[in-house]
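Bench notes, afternoon.
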Amino acid sequence: MCLNCARRRVSPRKLAGKYTPLSVYLARRAEFTSIITLSLPKVEEIIGDELPPSAIDSEGWWMNSRSSAQGQTWLDAGWKVDNIDLGERIVTFRKTTGVTTKAPMKKRRGKSEWMKRTPRLTMPRRRRTPSKTRIAKVIARYKNVQRERASMRRYRGRFKPKSAFEKRLYKPDAKPE
């Protein structure tokens, strides 16, 4: 696997907007409950950023309207803000009935609506068999290595015999001092 493929597999996908992680969180929780109570620090943790000061100060920011980015986020996920308590810093979401989710900006080919909502299971990759050309190259390299090993001289004992240059340099009767 190449480095880019591994990076794509490990790193999270980039989401469209600031509040999209909240939409994903609410959509996943929809299967298990119809009411979710979240603290404002938990909402900040989910979106991975701080909420604007108007979200902490006024209840108008939490209105269920499609004119705001945050309102559209939870309405598209099938939720609405049921109660907001700024003193306790708690927001309660309630699941709406019969809400159709808005289609994403970029359409994916061949996926139905229910497949978009279900988490994708990662299947183990099937190992590809190498091509005949690659097999032939590997066998040729292996034979070259064997041929090279066979052509190398093998010496008995601990020391390699002296080369012709060394024999001429040091004559047997005259030894260097």
